């Protein structure tokens, strides 16, 4: 049957259930990850819990969770982790374009690769990158930053592996990211669960390409962030590894002792207990700090045991170094006492032993993290932190947890205390301690809901639910009815962790009195609990009873009176006394305790020696005092006085007499503990020593004030210059009335005979003119007891062949000593003279002593510059500077006024030759070479150059020779022309060559028997250079007829000819004057090569038929007359030259007789520019290769055009006479 209380409990439960159905269930306290804090907005549906990470940690996952209607927190718990890959050793499959593996964990998040910011591999299959974390970590997340745009392979199909194998591909798969990472972005690759391992690899799997990573960050919750180490140290000077903080002190230097003190001042130690992996880490960090270090040397917390033969090294905490990390050839104890150790950058940061007093080394401080950060907790739990700085005093900060700061960072000595909601029991570590490694020990506990259900009912009694619940830790109170007594040890039971009530439910018994409890700080003696039994109460020592000491059990189960209480009687610690000591005799201060008093030495106790603690809590009597012992004022003697102003025990007074008195008796008296002065008072007696006699060559000064001469007065003696005291310089008046010391006098200061070394002589110059001497005297001339006055001087000179070594002058000083030590005479030896190159020296006497001579000679073809002989001087040096050897060169050769002469001098050294040559057009006469002779002069004579001149060229039959000028020198050109109906065989042009011969033999003119029909009326016979266009048969058949006709016509037309000639010449001059220089112009493409000129073409229509039209063009070159070389200029431009083959005057030349510069052969009156040859209205130009005038074969005329119809000329020439047609 249910009790009333059961009905109430059931009703409350039902109401609570209905309320949750209408409003939704509340969520429990949210879980919190390690190194994070949570801000809870509420526990009802829709409430938000927000997470933030501790400084130095990054959050991965959602930063908040939401309470849903079912009382559950939605979302996955985030992770707060720190990067453990920063600047750790790396490796990669290959390196290209400056993309070193270290660029991916240098902390630079830039995505622009300039050869120093990102990694890059060659194009290969499945390229990879890996980092060595130096120890195992639980890796949670790997962040990968891709390179920015553009021009590289994108990151794709990435695979992350974590493990302990150096064969990275064999480690377990952490994460896989198919697809492509966009350029310049960062992706988080989270492991399915935290994976334990030392090596982390990132690989492009199955991809053939180049991999470029700008940054890779590996995150773990098992490392301490730099921000947690110390808020007072700049982060760039901090590093963490293996949950230890390292402070790199690079801004100052000092000895090892200073380094230890500096570290201790910051609750740290000089770096110690360094293992191999820690050494690798520190070395990588030091390489990062190298630019900020003034020296690459740092102290290590290692010292050697004392003793010269000790080889034991210990960390600064005293433990032995088992595996030292020495550098190459260390330790060497090079300069002894090298009892300390430093990290040496020159030895790859390994150890080097040094003396401990070096005062410029940097150091590293090492310390554990002062905080473990925010502890993690499971869902439905709360955590509070107790700061246990020592066992006796702990501060509970549970209030901070209730205020939302439950995960506040812990500090050194902190304890995280977990609790569960009411009705729940803590499963796991209720307390977690912050360890030395900076991690929380143990694991976060969970909560278990426990319900003990309703306890059983008790007969003749009832129970009360004190906490209105039956869950874990709930309490139930039992009460019995009247006249019944509760049987059992306790009237309250509690719901335990096993779901049962503890202790079991009690019983209600009739006529039993309640169980009495002994008073606090007291005891209880009970004879029984039935009616009539007696209970006696007792109090502990120091306590007094308040109430009835004895009670009895009455019917109905009640005691006759209330239990008494024991009140503690504590008189407290009695007041201390100054200059004394209070002692608790029995070590307590409660009732009956006794305190005793005793004064320090030299003090008297004034008051009771002991006091007792009374019932009223007071000590008996008054507090005593300690009074310092003192003496009366001491007696003062006549003519004396006392120094000392304290007369307390142990004080001293010092007796003194007035000036001129001395003390008889003890001068110091002491105040004893008997309050009297030790000894007796002394006496003072007067003393006067009087004045001393006058001093010769000196004077006396009485130093005491007033020139007094009484006891302890002083006087001093001084001598005039150059005199010194013999005796004491200061005297004091003594008790016997005399001055101290014997007689004092002044003596003249003099120097003894100076030392005269062997082979030396001296000259003495005294300050007394009568005794002064400048004669040099030897040792044998010195007087044995001779002395010298102050300022006298001695000059030393050595015998010939010796030199003074040392000072050659000494002066007698005012202290009676010479200013320097006597020199010695050193044999003069100039030593071997300096050599000369290339040359030798000869010692003419085979000696190098004083007076010796050295002669210098140079190698052949070299000469001595300077003096070729030097002498050893008295001062031990060779006279003059060392000569030099200068190479002999011949002078530069002038060419003088020798025309065409050139010279190449060569090196101008002896034996070399100068080579002469002549310019083109000259031949050398004389020796072409001249040698440079031994004395720097040229041998032989200067040659000369003679101009090249060819012999006069021969004339040819049936043709004419054309020569540009009267000269036949080098380069002169001669041309040959054949008469009409004659063909030219051979070169039509000859030039004078360098050898003085013409380039070819003269050509030949042969008769052409080809009939071309009537060509023209211009006829030329063999004697008059006239020609006509007739064949050979006609010429032979009509020669007589023509002759007769000519005679007749000549006679008839004499007058007409004369008139015609006059008219023609006048007209010709007018035309020439009007058109001078414009008849034939050089073509626009005229080229000037080697002085040649190109003229108008052969077929120029303005000139009529070509004079060469009848010349056969199938000539073969004659090999006997072919040109050896093309002359530099075949035709020289010498103005306008016209060739006229008619009678003329003034500048007109007939039949090649060159008396001027204008030539005409027919009626062509045009003035031709350059060398244009006209013969019957034709013009010719040299167009052969090499002539600069065309491209025809050498030694051949240009090919003639086909025969043209006959043309009637405007005039004819007969026997050299031109007849103008009408």
TrEMBL record:
<feature type="disulfide bond">
    <location>
        <begin position="978"/>
        <end position="1005"/>
    </location>
</feature>
<feature type="disulfide bond">
    <location>
        <begin position="918"/>
        <end position="945"/>
    </location>
</feature>
<dbReference type="GO" id="GO:0046872">
    <property type="term" value="F:metal ion binding"/>
</dbReference>
<feature type="region of interest" description="Disordered">
    <location>
        <begin position="1074"/>
        <end position="1222"/>
    </location>
</feature>
<keyword id="KW-0106">Calcium</keyword>
<feature type="disulfide bond">
    <location>
        <begin position="719"/>
        <end position="746"/>
    </location>
</feature>
<keyword id="KW-0479">Metal-binding</keyword>
<feature type="domain" description="Sushi">
    <location>
        <begin position="687"/>
        <end position="748"/>
    </location>
</feature>
<feature type="compositionally biased region" description="Pro residues">
    <location>
        <begin position="1195"/>
        <end position="1208"/>
    </location>
</feature>
<dbReference type="InterPro" id="IPR008979">
    <property type="entry name" value="Galactose-bd-like_sf"/>
</dbReference>
<dbReference type="Pfam" id="PF00059">
    <property type="entry name" value="Lectin_C"/>
</dbReference>
<feature type="domain" description="Sushi">
    <location>
        <begin position="25"/>
        <end position="82"/>
    </location>
</feature>
<keyword id="KW-0732">Signal</keyword>
<feature type="domain" description="Sushi">
    <location>
        <begin position="888"/>
        <end position="947"/>
    </location>
</feature>
<feature type="domain" description="Sushi">
    <location>
        <begin position="511"/>
        <end position="568"/>
    </location>
</feature>
<feature type="disulfide bond">
    <location>
        <begin position="452"/>
        <end position="495"/>
    </location>
</feature>
<feature type="disulfide bond">
    <location>
        <begin position="53"/>
        <end position="80"/>
    </location>
</feature>
<feature type="disulfide bond">
    <location>
        <begin position="420"/>
        <end position="447"/>
    </location>
</feature>
<feature type="transmembrane region" description="Helical">
    <location>
        <begin position="1043"/>
        <end position="1064"/>
    </location>
</feature>
<dbReference type="Pfam" id="PF00084">
    <property type="entry name" value="Sushi"/>
</dbReference>
<feature type="domain" description="C-type lectin">
    <location>
        <begin position="241"/>
        <end position="357"/>
    </location>
</feature>
<feature type="domain" description="Sushi">
    <location>
        <begin position="948"/>
        <end position="1007"/>
    </location>
</feature>
<keyword id="KW-0768">Sushi</keyword>
<keyword id="KW-0677">Repeat</keyword>
<feature type="signal peptide">
    <location>
        <begin position="1"/>
        <end position="24"/>
    </location>
</feature>
<feature type="domain" description="Sushi">
    <location>
        <begin position="450"/>
        <end position="510"/>
    </location>
</feature>
<keyword id="KW-0325">Glycoprotein</keyword>
<dbReference type="InterPro" id="IPR006585">
    <property type="entry name" value="FTP1"/>
</dbReference>
<feature type="disulfide bond">
    <location>
        <begin position="539"/>
        <end position="566"/>
    </location>
</feature>
<keyword id="KW-0472">Membrane</keyword>
<feature type="disulfide bond">
    <location>
        <begin position="599"/>
        <end position="626"/>
    </location>
</feature>
<dbReference type="InterPro" id="IPR000436">
    <property type="entry name" value="Sushi_SCR_CCP_dom"/>
</dbReference>
<protein>
    <submittedName>
        <fullName>CUB and sushi domain-containing protein 1-like</fullName>
    </submittedName>
</protein>
<feature type="domain" description="Sushi">
    <location>
        <begin position="629"/>
        <end position="686"/>
    </location>
</feature>
<dbReference type="InterPro" id="IPR001304">
    <property type="entry name" value="C-type_lectin-like"/>
</dbReference>
<feature type="compositionally biased region" description="Polar residues">
    <location>
        <begin position="1122"/>
        <end position="1132"/>
    </location>
</feature>
<dbReference type="Pfam" id="PF22633">
    <property type="entry name" value="F5_F8_type_C_2"/>
</dbReference>
<keyword id="KW-1015">Disulfide bond</keyword>
<feature type="domain" description="Sushi">
    <location>
        <begin position="749"/>
        <end position="827"/>
    </location>
</feature>
<feature type="disulfide bond">
    <location>
        <begin position="657"/>
        <end position="684"/>
    </location>
</feature>
<feature type="domain" description="Sushi">
    <location>
        <begin position="370"/>
        <end position="449"/>
    </location>
</feature>
<dbReference type="InterPro" id="IPR016186">
    <property type="entry name" value="C-type_lectin-like/link_sf"/>
</dbReference>
């Amino acid at each position: 049957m249910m009790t009333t209380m059961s009905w109430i409990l059931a009703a409350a439960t039902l109401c609570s259930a209905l309320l949750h159905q209408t409003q939704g269930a509340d969520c429990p306290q949210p879980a919190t990850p390690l190194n994070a804090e949570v801000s809870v907005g509420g526990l009802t549906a829709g409430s938000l819990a927000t997470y933030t990470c501790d400084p130095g940690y990054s959050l991965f996952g959602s930063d908040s969770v939401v309470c849903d209607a079912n009382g559950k927190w939605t979302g996955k718990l985030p992770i707060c982790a720190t990067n453990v890959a920063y600047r750790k050793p790396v490796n990669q499959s290959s390196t290209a374009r400056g993309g070193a593996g270290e660029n991916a964990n240098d902390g630079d998040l830039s995505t622009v690769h300039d050869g120093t910011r990102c990694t890059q591999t060659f194009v290969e299959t499945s390229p990879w990158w890996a980092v060595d974390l130096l120890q195992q970590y639980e890796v949670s997340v790997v962040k990968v930053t891709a390179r920015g745009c553009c021009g590289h392979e994108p990151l794709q199909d990435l695979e992350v592996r974590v493990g302990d194998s150096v064969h990275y591909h064999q480690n377990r798969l952490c994460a896989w990211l198919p697809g492509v990472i966009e350029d310049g972005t960062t992706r988080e690759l989270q492991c399915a669960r935290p994976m334990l391992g030392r090596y982390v690899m990132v690989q492009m799997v199955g991809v053939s390409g180049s991999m470029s990573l700008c940054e890779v960050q590996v995150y773990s919750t098992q490392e301490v962030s730099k921000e947690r180490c110390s808020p007072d140290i700049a982060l760039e000077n901090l590093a963490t590894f293996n949950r230890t903080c390292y402070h790199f002190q690079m801004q100052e230097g000092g000895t090892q002792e200073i380094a230890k003190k500096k570290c201790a001042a910051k609750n740290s130690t000089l770096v110690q207990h360094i293992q191999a992996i820690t050494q690798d880490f520190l070395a990588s960090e030091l390489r990062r700090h190298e630019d900020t270090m003034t020296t690459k040397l740092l102290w290590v917390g290692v010292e050697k045991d004392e003793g010269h033969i000790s080889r034991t090294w210990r960390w600064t905490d005293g433990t032995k170094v088992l595996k030292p990390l020495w550098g190459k050839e260390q330790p060497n104890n090079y300069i002894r006492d090298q009892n300390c150790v430093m990290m040496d950058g020159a030895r790859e940061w390994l150890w080097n032993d040094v003396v401990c007093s070096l005062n410029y080394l940097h150091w590293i401080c090492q310390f554990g993290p002062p905080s473990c950060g925010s502890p993690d907790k499971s869902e439905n739990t709360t955590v509070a932190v107790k700061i246990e700085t020592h066992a006796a005093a702990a501060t509970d900060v549970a209030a901070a947890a209730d205020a939302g700061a439950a995960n506040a960072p812990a500090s050194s000595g902190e304890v995280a205390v977990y609790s569960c909601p009411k009705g729940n029991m803590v499963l796991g570590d209720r307390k977690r301690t912050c360890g030395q490694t900076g991690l929380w020990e143990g694991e976060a506990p969970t909560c278990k809901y426990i319900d003990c259900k309703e306890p059983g009912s008790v007969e003749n009694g009832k129970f009360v639910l004190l906490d209105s619940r039956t869950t874990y830790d709930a309490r139930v109170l039992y009460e019995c009815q009247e006249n019944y007594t509760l049987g059992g040890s306790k009237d309250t039971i509690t719901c335990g962790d096993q779901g049962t009530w503890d202790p079991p439910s009690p019983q209600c018994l009739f006529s039993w009195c309640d169980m009495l409890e002994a008073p606090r700080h007291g005891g209880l003696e009970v004879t029984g609990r039935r009616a009539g039994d007696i209970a006696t109460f007792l109090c502990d020592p120091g306590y007094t009873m308040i109430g009835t000491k004895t009670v009895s059990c009455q019917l109905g189960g009640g005691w006759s009176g209330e239990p008494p209480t024991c009140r503690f009687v504590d008189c407290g610690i009695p007041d201390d006394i100054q200059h004394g000591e209070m002692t608790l005799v029995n070590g307590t201060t409660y009732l009956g305790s006794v305190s005793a008093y005793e004064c320090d030495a030299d003090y008297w106790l004034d008051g009771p020696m002991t006091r007792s603690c009374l019932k009223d809590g007071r000590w008996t009597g008054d507090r005593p005092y300690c009074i310092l012992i003192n003496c009366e004022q001491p007696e003062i003697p006549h003519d004396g006085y006392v120094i000392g102003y304290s007369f307390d025990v142990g004080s001293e007074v010092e007796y003194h007499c007035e000036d001129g008195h001395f003390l008889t008796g003890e001068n110091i008296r002491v105040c004893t503990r008997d309050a009297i002065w030790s000894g007796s008072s002394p006496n003072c007696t007067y003393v006067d020593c009087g004045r001393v006699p006058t001093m010769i060559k000196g004077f006396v000064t009485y130093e005491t004030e007033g020139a007094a001469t009484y006891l302890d007065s002083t006087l001093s003696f001084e001598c005039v210059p150059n005199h010194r005291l013999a005796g004491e310089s200061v005297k004091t008046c003594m008790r016997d009335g005399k001055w101290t010391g014997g007689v004092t006098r002044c003596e003249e200061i003099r120097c003894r005979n100076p030392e005269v070394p062997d082979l030396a002589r001296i000259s003495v110059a005294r300050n007394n003119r009568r005794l002064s001497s400048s004669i040099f005297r030897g040792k044998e001339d010195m007087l044995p007891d001779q002395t010298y006055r102050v300022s006298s001087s001695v000059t030393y000179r050595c015998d010939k062949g010796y030199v003074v070594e040392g000072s050659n002058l000494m002066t007698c000083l005012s202290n009676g000593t010479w200013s320097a030590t006597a020199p010695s005479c050193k044999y003069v030896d100039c030593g071997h003279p300096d050599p000369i190159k290339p040359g030798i020296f000869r010692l003419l006497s085979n000696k190098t002593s004083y007076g010796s001579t050295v002669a210098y000679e140079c190698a052949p073809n070299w000469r001595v510059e300077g003096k070729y002989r030097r002498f050893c001087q008295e001062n031990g040096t060779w006279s003059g500077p060392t000569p030099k050897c200068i190479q002999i060169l011949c002078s530069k050769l002038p060419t003088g006024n020798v025309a065409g002469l050139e010279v190449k001098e060569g090196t101008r050294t002896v034996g070399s030759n100068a080579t002469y040559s002549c310019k083109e057009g000259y031949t050398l006469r004389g020796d072409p070479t001249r040698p440079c002779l031994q004395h720097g002069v040229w041998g032989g004579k200067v040659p000369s150059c003679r101009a090249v001149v060819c012999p006069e060229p021969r004339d040819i039959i049936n043709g004419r020779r054309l020569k540009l000028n009267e000269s036949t020198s080098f380069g002169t050109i001669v041309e040959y022309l054949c008469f009409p109906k004659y063909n030219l065989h051979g070169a039509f042009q000859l030039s004078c060559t360098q050898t003085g011969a013409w380039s070819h033999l003269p050509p030949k003119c042969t008769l052409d028997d080809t009939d071309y029909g009537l060509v023209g009326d211009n006829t030329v016979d063999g004697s008059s250079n006239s020609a006509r266009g007739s064949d050979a048969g006609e010429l032979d058949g009509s020669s007589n007829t023509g002759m007769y006709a000519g005679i007749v016509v000549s006679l008839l037309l004499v007058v007409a000819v004369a008139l015609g000639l006059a008219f023609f010449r006048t007209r010709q001059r007018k035309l020439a004057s009007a058109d001078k220089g414009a008849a034939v112009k050089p073509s626009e493409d005229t080229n000037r090569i080697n002085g040649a000129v190109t003229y108008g073409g052969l077929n120029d229509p303005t000139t009529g038929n070509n004079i060469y039209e009848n010349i056969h063009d199938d000539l073969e070159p004659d090999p006997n007359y072919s040109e050896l070389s093309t002359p530099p200029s075949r035709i020289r431009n010498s103005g306008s030259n016209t060739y006229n083959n008619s009678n003329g005057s003034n500048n007109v030349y007939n039949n090649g007789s060159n008396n001027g510069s204008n030539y005409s052969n027919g009626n062509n009156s045009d003035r031709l520019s350059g060398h244009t040859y006209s013969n019957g209205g034709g013009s010719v130009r040299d167009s052969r290769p090499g002539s600069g005038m065309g491209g025809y074969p050498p030694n051949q005329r240009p090919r003639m055009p086909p025969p043209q119809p006959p043309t009637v000329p405007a005039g004819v020439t007969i026997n050299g006479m031109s007849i103008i047609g009408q």
